């Protein structure tokens, strides 16, 4: 041992570094790295099973321990780390040092004896638990859980270690540390380092003597690098098993999202217990071959690196880190507060997941815009008409409101919606609305309408939420998107939930899928309950009226007549001219105002839009002559009105107006004002130019250029800015009305503008504008900034913006739009723009590469990988560009980088660009080259998207139909799911296996059955599909049953399907019960279904039906012998029914012998506990009548569940039946504590009145199993939640106001630390001790100071807190305030009240020293010096080390 065993005086708090080993050889090496061995503390904490070696390396005091002999893996490592953390609460971090299996690749030359250090990569923390997650369809394994990052202070040391290690002029420090074990021969470096090919298995024996040298991987000599050990930095994979399979090794090593360097056992168990860095010496290659001779040396190399890291890391660097105990307590505080609202947070999380998955458009912008335009009183004629009143009362199911262009249909829709919402507040009805919108591509399809209605209904009604959650679950928790059929079925089921629902759909004529909408409308009206009513508004166009006749009687059609609308126009006109400031100049001449009103009414002809346009023009008239001329020249039609507006545009603005109108007319998504300004000033002459200095000083004045044709609305959603100043909410620019766009794009428009607004001319100009803008950004934004910007995106839309996004988005608002959209415009005018496209792709590499960073149209292109010009052209459908690039010598298979489809051919096949596919194949593209992102071949990509001709073309050109990716079982799997029947026929004719590539997969039939494709099911069966082959989660008939496809269930059964085969979703009858399909349950019972076969989780059909509340299905199942006692992890059918509030089902189950006191799943508890938590009084009474035990074991009582959830009436009833008000458990504390924590004052009073002890603490933890277990009373819980009213009640009943928890923290200290001003005042008023010491931040005053709560500091001082009272943590309150820094306000207050600026104490010594180390503390330091502060140095103890 190096050094001497001199210092035996170190107590537990002196040790700041933990060193954890898994194996004996690792432990021995670690101990030999110590400079000095120390005896250490006399004893461990109670129930700490670890054995420690104590010592010093450099200036660090280190604790070394090893996992128990023979017990390895993440769980064992976690237990060791927890014990270490409990016994040594001052630890700042741990090093997990040991051996691992290397994962070499051609790019990463990892060899035996090398060292791998965990270092964050992308979203990974540096360690990934590769065996923790869930299995998704198609053999996709989704890793779950996030491991903590290593401490920044350790990552900050790595660059210096690497610099010195890579500098040949420097000594090889790691080799020097290895020499510390030269006296131990078995730890010397072996000579043989053999890496065999991945597909070559070990031949047998304890060595590789029998293995063939011909199978060795040839590697370059490494002897010239001058270092004994090579070090690699990146991701380490941790798990509970040893990897001895080279194929698994290579899978993780080559996965782009992982890039694993080595495998080990244990680190994942430590990462989330202690801040940790992992260091592995490579002792094998994670394959079947034997390399045990390297174990000792690999352990030594890792230990040597760890020693070097501690020597480079200065002790002062870790002194500023919080002790682990303190960090953990802060987390526990936050978690305690969060737990008080866990139900709402969980529901919010579910809502966020559903919202992201559904991606429904925000229709509030349309409603708000219409409401803003609506004049009070308009539309009242419609609300009062007989037809509408009958519709509202339910006598009419549906109404159609038809009107001519410009008559104000959307305004009428907003009137109806606002009226219905106002009445719904009293009636409890649900109102849904959707606005089709010609200006927003996200509001033009049936799919988007359905998504919006479903989400609105989910948010408004609790009774139908299960339907959407079920759809989400069926889509593998959002892993895939639902089909339109699935959306329709879900919407119908939600509409039939029993709630009264009114649905208003506006502007059918602006839907781009009219035929499909008509079909949906017919089926929705036919299939939904009579409690659901519909209103549709539209122009009276032939295809719409003829389609709706079949489902809505013409007696239910309302035509917007001129008479009633004229009254609305009169009210609107009168209100504008007498209320708008622009007309105030005429108020002294009432006759002129009257003339305006009369002339407009004489010509309006029932057109709201026409009247609004005339008023816009008349506003600008400043003289009687102007006004009379304008009134005289008012055009009679909307066309004439728009023509006059165009003629009124100044000649100097005509070019700008054309540019604006081009973008508004042809953009698929609304542009914000700033984007439109930038588009307007791009010069597209010559090579193009963009000058930011030419922007309008006031961007909003762009609207003046085409006043009357445009309007602005608030942007629906703003991205959240993560840093930097917040910018004002932006506004979108829209055409003022649908008729404006119609006019501009018609042959009736003004001749000056008409040529430039034709499709080719407009798209040519837009493409040039966007290209020029993109080129400007590429040349003028620094590359580092651009890289930082794109790194914030981490995936497809919606993106998570970072700080550089904030900068780029506001500096160049058109950037992402230009980068993402220029290709789509270029495709329309490709031949005309070919030279410019080729110039962009080929002549300036910087421009192209920068654009690739911004190109987010293809969201799965990994950032920092250049997809190549040919790939981009093929992906965008640029036929002529593809041909030109091939003539220039482009590699027909792409540049080899990892993009979504990998090859130009893969992209073209997926997109369906048949011409490009032919061109690429003609030039030699490999039809059998696998893509990267989808891990699919071109044939699979084309088949998935239903491109039948391309499938045939690929096979004709040599595509191997037997090739498949590892996530699919058959080439027909994807087209069967999407109902591409012609593609399936083609593939089957060409020899594709209907039962998978190996004949053992039924997933194609499962997919077709699940999605209700009856013809596809028959096609597959006719071609030999085995109806009993399962998919990943069950059989075809189970999936058809789950989704309610009765005809397919019958079809499969008639073709021999076995209805009793279980799977993850159970048998067919379990699946039908889960889906709530009683008719299918009845059908399957007739077919002989066994009702008691559980799924793989133990759930039966009865449990599913009970949980769903399907009374009919439950009765059927019970009648056919369903076993009421079968459970799923403790949850029985009775518990499920009780939790869901299904009283009739509970009664039926009890009549059939269900055990009332059996159950107790981890989430629900016993039946009575489940019912109590949900507040189901009737069920609780019923259960008590049948002998339910109110007081459960281990404190898990029904009373606690009810108290924690605020169920006052339930608590009353349970207490009256003998519930123990002092029941408690080690996990949740007492019943009173649960109610106090949640702030339920009425329940707190009720419990106390019934004998609950206010002084009771939660159970102790006698086994010592809980890390930093907290002992607390009800006052602590009330204080933690900020509930002053509860605290007041508890104090009235004698609870000790100064009682402290086992962190030595009182309620006053907790309130001061969380900023609860009202609580602080209450506690002081009730006698709390202001001078009490203890806790992690000392006195209450110090706690308020360190947290920056200025008001509380003032309250404490005003009530007599001693500003100079010493505390055990910071020394004084002033030192605490200075430690925080940032502001001098609190320090100024303390000094003004007599604080001693030169008092010493605490970990910083004095106020001035604390301030100099604090952030943003210049003013604070100056304040202290102005008041006489000097640097006071702490006196060193004679026992301190030198």
UniProtKB/TrEMBL annotation:
Transmembrane segments: none annotated. Residues 17-294 form the Nucleoside phosphorylase domain. Gene3D superfamilies: Ankyrin repeat-containing domain (1.25.40.20), Nucleoside phosphorylase domain (3.40.50.1580), P-loop containing nucleotide triphosphate hydrolases (3.40.50.300). Residues 377-539 form the Nephrocystin 3-like N-terminal domain. ANK repeats lie at residues 865-897, 900-932, 938-966, 1000-1032, 1035-1064, 1064-1096, 1097-1129, 1129-1161, 1163-1195, 1194-1226, 1227-1259, 1273-1302, 1303-1335, 1336-1368, 1372-1402. The keyword Repeat applies. InterPro entries: Ankyrin_rpt, Ankyrin_rpt-contain_sf, NPHP3-like_N, Nucleoside_phosphorylase_d, Nucleoside_phosphorylase_sf, P-loop_NTPase. Keywords: ANK repeat, Repeat. PROSITE patterns: ANK_REP_REGION, ANK_REPEAT. This is Ankyrin repeat protein. The lineage of its organism: Eukaryota, Fungi, Dikarya, Ascomycota, Pezizomycotina.
